[in-house]
Design brief:
This protein is mainly α. It has 6 helices and no strands. It has one domain: Four Helix Bundle (Hemerythrin (Met), subunit A) (Up-down Bundle).
């Protein structure tokens, strides 16, 4: 199971430095970043979670590992803090041919809900959200 000591809900769910890097590299402001990258990321993960559950139910370790890897890459690019830890654990478990991930999937869905609300609210666009990103 993922280490709950990493569950620091006092920090924003998105990495402010990564968001700033994205804005700088794409030449967009925070609002455009939300529209171009972050809302697409929400769709990717929203579609991916049910697929991970299906792959888990089918005991498809290879498919589970591949989908986890894809979602992990999207997460690294988009800047979520805690969420990508789940994906790393799942990818590793799928690679070894074992995983007991349903409780982790349930927990990740809750964490993703927090992340989604944060993105959709635009909280990261305010100084209190991510130090002025």
């Amino acid at each position: 199971m993922t280490n709950t000591n990493d569950d620091n809900h006092d920090r924003p769910p998105l990495d402010p430095e990564r968001l700033q890097e994205l804005q700088d590299s794409l030449g967009v402001d925070a609002s455009e970043l939300k529209d171009v990258i972050l809302l697409r990321y929400i769709t990717t993960v929203s579609d991916g979670l049910p697929l991970l559950s299906s792959l888990l139910a089918a005991n498809d370790a290879l498919g589970f590992r591949q989908k986890s890897h894809q979602l992990k890459g999207s997460s690294l690019n988009s800047g979520p803090n805690l969420w990508r830890r789940f994906l790393w654990v799942w990818k590793r478990g799928g690679k070894r041919g074992y995983f007991h991930a349903q409780p982790e999937l349930d927990r990740a869905a809750l964490e993703f809900s927090r992340l989604r609300g944060y993105i959709e609210s635009g909280a990261f666009m305010t100084p209190s959200g991510t130090q002025g990103v």
